[in-house]
Design goal:
Blueprint lengths: L7 E6 L4 H13 L2 E7 L13 E5 L7 H8 L2 E4 L6 H4 L3 H8 L4 H10 L2 E5 L38 H20 L2 E7 L2 E2 L17 H11 L3 E4 L5 E3 L1 E2 H13 L1 H4 L2 E5 L5 E3 H16 L6 E4 L1 H5 L8 E2 L4 H7 L7 H27 L1
Parallel strand pairs: 1-2, 1-4, 2-3, 4-5, 5-6, 6-11, 7-10, 8-13, 9-14
Antiparallel strand pairs: 9-12
The structure holds uridine-5'-diphosphate-glucuronic acid.
The site of uridine-5'-diphosphate-glucuronic acid (UGA) has 22 residues, from helix 7 and strand 8.
């Protein structure tokens, strides 16, 4: 049995990452539980020391780590992932391991020990475009009706979505045939402070679009628009997303056995539109002009094997019904504080990096 006394114990695998750094403080503030955050680093996690917080510095693929963490927990939030599209065609072996192979033991352990597995999957399982079960185009992506349409195997972009999809199918099968209590969440483009990294400061490569645009704004370089920036995403503010996760944890009976989209369809925007909104927010926050945008081809930007989702719009009716929840924050409201946080956080980091390079 979990050893947390009367309090429930929630393990957050990947508790030091972008989402973890928002979820862990919310759990501590809003639930009477013990939280065990597991990650390799906790630099993003700014929480006061608490006897209800345990930090376990470990990789989940180290022998024995998952065994012990799952044994101690009542509920496991599984957030570890490699989720930057730039990696899917450059390092698909690591991507498949991180998003599938390394998590198979977790699914089995949760089933064996009767733990509730709240697994963070991805909207990318829906693939290139939304198609209904008969292969006809639909506008929104629905958890229980929409087919999952991935591109050909040589388009290695889809290695991530395929790995995530197979893990969902494994979880579902353990739920259906081996008693696993599970909930699968499909986040739709969550954005907020501390997302990914800023290239050249605290990471290398290409982060997801918000962080990459922020890096360009901070360096005063043009914002790259892949294939003209016509692709569309609906971005959800991380605070709304965290509210959705907390609502799930409050409703185990209705949420177990479910797959849930968590997204903000009202914030549907083209990537070009996002770039313009971020440029305006940057100007507002800093009082200085923002660099322009620049069109780039997907092949030049990501290399061979990249492919894209043209439009990604969630159907959130199930989450609204089951959780009494809806995302409320508009892009106009969320972008200025996010940009301000990046500007404040990275101003000193960038000057330190520049001083170190000089
Ligand atoms: C990614 C992950 O693959 C998903 O797992 C994850 O769920 C999702 O982000 C998310 O954040 O929820 P994607 O939306 O394609 O999927 O990732 P981004 O790298 O943020 O790209 C969004 C769009 O912006 C793509 O069309 C991309 O080509 C474009 N982009 C990206 C640019 O035009 N410029 C950039 O500098 C970066």
């Amino acid at each position: 049995m979990p050893a947390s006394g009367s309090r429930s114990r929630i393990a957050v695998l990947g508790g030091g990452g972008f989402l973890g750094s928002h979820i862990v403080p919310a759990l501590l503030a809003r639930r009477d539980c013990v939280v065990e955050a597991v990650d390799l680093t906790f630099d993003k996690l700014a929480v006061p020391a608490s006897d209800r917080l345990v930090l376990t510095r470990a990789n989940i693929d180290e022998p024995g780590v998952l065994d012990k963490v799952v044994e101690r927990a009542d509920t496991v939030l599984s957030l570890t992932a490699l989720c930057n599209p730039a990696l899917y065609n450059k390092d698909p072996l690591a991507v498949i391991d991180a998003n599938y192979t390394d998590l198979v033991p977790l699914v089995k352990l949760c089933a064996k020990r009767g733990r509730w597995l709240l697994h963070f999957s991805t909207c990318e399982v829906y693939g290139v475009v939304a198609l209904d079960g008969a292969g006809q185009p639909t506008r929104t992506m629905n958890e229980d009706d929409t087919g999952l349409f991935l591109g050909p195997v040589h388009k290695e972009r889809w290695s991530y979505a395929a790995a995530k999809q197979l893990l969902e199918r494994l979880i579902w099968a353990y739920g259906n045939h081996a008693g696993l209590r599970f909930t699968i969440v499909r986040p739709f483009n969550v954005i907020g402070p501390r997302m990914d990294f800023v290239p050249g400061v605290d990471g290398e490569g290409i982060p997801r679009v918000l962080a990459n645009f922020m890096g360009a704004l901070l360096r005063g370089e043009s914002l790259p628009l892949v294939d003209g920036g016509h692709q569309r995403r609906s971005f959800i503010c991380v605070d709304d997303f965290v509210d959705g996760i907390l609502a799930i944890l409050e409703r185990p009976l209705v949420c177990q056995g479910q797959i849930l989209n968590l997204g903000a369809p009202d914030n549907d925007v083209s990537i070009r539109g996002l770039a313009e909104l971020m440029r305006a927010a940057y100007t507002m926050v800093t009082g200085t002009g923002a660099p322009p945008t620049q069109d780039v081809t997907a092949e030049d930007f990501y290399g061979a094997g990249y492919d894209d989702t043209r439009e990604r719009l969630p159907d959130v009716s199930k989450a609204t019904r089951l959780l009494n929840w809806t995302a409320r924050t508009t892009l106009a409201d969320m972008l200025p504080p996010i940009v301000a946080d990046y500007v404040a956080r990275y101003r000193s980091a960038r000057s330190r990096a520049a001083a170190g390079a000089a």
